[in-house]
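Re: duplicated header lines in exported structure tokens

Our pipeline writes sequence and tokens for each protein into one text file. With two proteins the header for the second block appears twice in some exports. Here is an export where it did not happen, for reference. First protein block:
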Amino acid sequence: MADEQPAEIKPEENKPMETPVEEQPAPATEEAPAPAAEPQPAAEEKAPEERPAPAAPAREDSRGREKYETIKLETINYGTNNFIEVSKKKAPNGNVFISLSKGWYPANSPDKRYKGGIGFPFEQELVDKFKNALETVVKE
């Protein structure tokens, strides 16, 4: 029984992987190695300097999210380290919208951390209704 292999393991899987002949290191010699030929890019691959520039710059942050162009920004600080941010932004597709965000400043850092936010289209009628609703709520 000690000589038997488990049924799910095949004998081929127990062999060590062999390195292809091209990738095996050359034996060490005391002679100076011959200068290596400069590698040429493959036919379907272009050298980096020959690649065309992208049509539009990448608009993504470090997390891969779309980045929006900020047209106007107002920050309202309150409390010890909190803020409300009101901004007008432009999406990559050209749509303009209003963004309201709430966040905080970490200790000993000028960076902003966001807790949440909302956005809505920049339509004057909608902006006016929002302003009127805010003024009404504040009065009462």
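Second protein block, exported in the same file:
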Amino acid sequence: MRILFLTLYFAPDISANAVIVTELAEELAGLGHEVTVITAFPHYAGNVIDPRYRGRLIQQDEHKGMRVIRTHLYTSPHKRRTLVRILSYISFNFLSTLAGLFSGRQDMILAPSPPLTIGFSAYVISRVKGVPYVYNVQDIYPDVVIKLGLLKNPIGKPLFRILERFVYRNARHITVLSDGFRANLLGKDVPPQKLTIIPNFVDVDFIRPMHQNNSFRRHFGLEGQFVVLFAGNVGHSQDLEHVLECAALLQDRDHITFVIVGGGSRKQQLEHQARQMGLDNVHFIPFQPRQDVPKIYASADLALVTLREGIALDSFPSKTYTIMASGKPIIAAVDPGSDIWNLVQQAECGLCVGPEDPQALAEAIRTLYDDSALRKRLGRNGRKQVMQHYTRQVVSKQYHELLTSLTHKARLIRECQFHSNDPPYKRFLDLSILFVGHALLSPIWVLLWIFVPLFIWLEDGRPIFYMQKRLGLHGKHFKAFKFRSMVKDAERRTGAVWAEENDPRVTRIGRILRATALDELPQVLNILSGDMSFVGPRAERPELMERFTEDVPEFPKRLMVRPGLTGIAQIYGKYDSPPAEKLQYDLAYIEKMNPRLDIKLLMLSLYVTFRGKWESRANKI
């Protein structure tokens, strides 16, 4: 499979996302995939472009056999300014989109966030190249920046919400890191069938338990100290102001030293705050080379994962797995019930305290300081947990299986585009039936169009009509119109599922409409527009098509003709017939269809309507 990665960060950048994406790309390439990466010039350290790449717009490199196309982006040391971020994202997205369009042929695009705008670039490349994209949610934007107060503009908020919905809606699939992320997207009406939980991972051969008294400890004068480590981005989310307050509370413990390794938009302010507070037990150390990361964690006695209140619901720092792999205990100062809290509790690999609570954090540090046996037990538990569930090999295999499945489905749909069996007579027959039928039965049509909406409104109010995304000829998406037969927001919790017998979601008037198929009367508009025919396979929803294709790989062959209001499967199959059985009916129709067969099926459909048997779990005729 040919995979295109579209990512802001990639090796040699040292951000957490750069490490995750680089190692995932390496694993997928190792599994035999042809991987191309489009990324920005290295710029994470200090938000300044690496001198080796300055003065260029685009440069092509190679990383362990993978083609890497790097593009320029606007950078400034004043990264925390909103305008700087916007210019940075716009410049990267513009150039990366151009690079993607001319990067050759691919079968799948994988777009890890943030930024959210990378999803739009993936959409453009996807549409032009005719390949699907998978959106990988590393942090939930714009939720995080809104909670941090970094996005206050009354115009910016709704615009980013619109972009978020657009990216989710057009992605073929979305991967999220945890149950909490999945719940967040479900609350934004993303269909459950479109979501897969795949966690981040850690290289357990690289990050492993090591001797504590190493060169990192000696170089920074930490011998004989009890090291409380924070390593990573020093930004708005990390709540390090309260860590400094905690350090002030522990100044009476001579051997406890707080070590903050990394950089970010808040580092200078925190250094200034530490000097003002007279904290001689806090050391700030700049970003270190990637090869020294195992020694950094090995030098610690415990490590911190801290986030501002509310942020842990939309973010999951991958350093959590790094700490666990190093065999060190975690103190997680995060929201109770968040995914990080739950992981630490379930794995028994650390202690949890609430966010923004220096007193509770100090007490947890004292507990581990006084109990070396507890520290060792928690560290061993963390290492055991990542070895079982969060290695790069285990997680990369999950991506491999998902992308392979999605690519297979996309290939079947593309094949249908080149093997269309939709004959010319069908369009002529559809329009003839529409105009002749309306002319002869106009009084009945008028009454139906008046009284059906009236009864729906009297029972359950508005909306009267219901629109669903369906798949048409060659897999083209269109909106099918129906009279609403279920309660409002019926699928918010259940997702796309067929109605069951005596389904409580179906209204009283809805039961009549569904039994007689009058709920589908507005689909004559779809027939008029050419998206549907009177006779053909049922117009299926994209998420159900994906689900059925997993069990019946040939299911997309139904897309070789326009979907219909009625057909062999609808008439002779039962309401809850399995997909494989319905496919056989549909393929039989595609092979034998002719005007005489269409007219016969229409007559049989009228018979079923008069009997009110469309919802029957038994035979309809």
